[in-house]
Q: What sequence folds into this?
């Protein structure tokens, strides 16, 4: 879809995505846009912990979805985790309360009907991996590792996992360590001859944060490492994916409001690399929204934010990030869901939930929550209903800084990690579902 078509009439602050075809009109083989849908899940006897970053979800091989979010106690503090499985038609399969006090960073379907729940503490650094029965939600095994932190995981063909939790850990089907390396990593993707792991690190010469990519073999040997940064900032990593030609796409957030970061202010950056990790292109988001003021309206730039989800959809990629203004007397806090072409160019942007995963028939599912309710949206490219758009959205090039090293020039330290068996229990939750749109 060309950008000009994707943004028809944006200055009118549309409440749905553009490209709507009226009933009985048009012709020439045009296709009516799909209708976006929304499903609201309401818990009985408990409620969700209120925080914009609360939640994670993943798509199952059968087209269903599993999601998790922290619950709140009667004083509003986080208490336990709700894990909910829905089938492909978004009907409730089961809902469980897990006695884990930290938000899972990843839900990973594995072999033999397993669902792995990745959680833990970023400081001082503890990783917990829980294996649930995907059919019932019951806990089968739970282990804890020190010298690690919660991150994203890959399910491996041998039934084990590769966990990117600040350091990199490969474990077998019994959740026992195979090897561990001191490699900056919070996300990983499988490639033909190993893995590409991505994390936030410091450049050796630049002395500023940016994205670090490392090519690792199945045995833990490092082939190369690449670092790229758009400049000073407090960067966060959204995710990494490989494309058909072997190239890589990475999303970066920038939460910094420091004075030395003014030149690089942006809620989000999209970065592409070739198959060997060499920087191709880096682009910065420029977003704004018309907001009311005491004298009329003003256009507020959305300058600050952080990335959350990366969702491959064919050769296109959906990414979600926060975008906040904090300027000109306004306070716009938006959750943006943006679609990019393989070259990193923006195709469309919507206000949707931060937590996203792929859905059936080319759709993307995302959710947001409030109190006892959680709203799961199923959105289509150019779809109608349920969402609105920024007043203006574009990406512009950034001159990034890169450092690169291969083979023996990359210093990697092996780690010793010892698993400890822990106890986790899942109990049934009561929940109900309703259909109907709710504009975020």
A:
């Amino acid at each position: 879809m060309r950008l000009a078509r994707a943004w028809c009439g944006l200055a009118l602050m549309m409440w749905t995505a553009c490209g709507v075809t009226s009933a009985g009109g048009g012709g020439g083989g045009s296709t009516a846009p799909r209708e976006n849908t929304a499903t609201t899940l309401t818990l009985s006897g408990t409620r969700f912990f209120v925080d914009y970053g609360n939640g994670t979800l993943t798509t199952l091989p059968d087209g269903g979805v599993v999601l998790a979010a922290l619950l709140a106690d009667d004083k509003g503090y986080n208490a336990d985790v709700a894990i909910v499985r829905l089938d492909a038609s978004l009907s409730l399969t089961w809902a469980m309360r897990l006695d884990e006090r930290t938000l899972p960073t990843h839900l990973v379907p594995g072999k033999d009907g397993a669902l792995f729940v990745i959680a833990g503490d970023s400081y001082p650094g503890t990783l917990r991996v829980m294996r649930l029965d995907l059919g019932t939600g019951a806990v089968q095994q739970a282990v804890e590792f020190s010298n690690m932190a919660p991150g994203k995981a890959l399910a491996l063909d041998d039934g084990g996992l590769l966990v990117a939790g600040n350091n990199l850990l490969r474990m077998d089907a019994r959740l026992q360590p195979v090897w561990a390396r001191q490699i900056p990593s919070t996300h990983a993707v499988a490639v033909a001859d190993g893995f590409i792991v991505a994390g936030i690190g410091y450049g050796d010469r630049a002395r500023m944060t940016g994205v670090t990519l490392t090519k690792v073999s199945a045995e833990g040997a490092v082939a190369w490492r690449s670092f790229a940064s758009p400049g000073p900032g407090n960067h966060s990593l959204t995710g990494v994916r490989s494309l058909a030609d072997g190239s890589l796409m990475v999303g970066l957030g920038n939460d910094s409001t420091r004075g030395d970061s003014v030149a690089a202010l942006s809620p989000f950056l999209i970065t592409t690399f070739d198959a060997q990790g060499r920087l191709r292109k880096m682009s910065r988001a420029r977003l704004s929204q018309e907001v009311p003021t005491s004298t009329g309206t003003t256009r507020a730039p959305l300058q600050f934010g952080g990335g959350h989800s990366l969702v491959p959809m064919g050769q296109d990629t959906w990414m979600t990030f926060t975008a906040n203004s904090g300027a000109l007397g306004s306070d716009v806090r938006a959750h943006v869901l943006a679609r990019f072409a393989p070259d990193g160019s923006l195709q469309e942007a919507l206000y949707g939930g931060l937590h996203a995963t792929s859905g059936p028939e080319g759709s993307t599912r995302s959710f947001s929550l409030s109190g006892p309710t959680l709203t799961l949206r199923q959105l289509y490219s150019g779809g109608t209903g349920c969402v609105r758009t920024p007043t203006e959205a574009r990406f512009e090039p950034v001159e990034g800084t890169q450092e690169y090293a291969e083979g023996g020039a990359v210093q990697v330290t092996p780690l010793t990690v010892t698993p400890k068996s822990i106890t986790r229990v899942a109990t049934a939750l009561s929940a109900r579902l309703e259909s109907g749109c709710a504009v975020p």
Q: What stands out?
A: The helical segments are 3-6. The first strand starts at residue 37 and ends at 43.
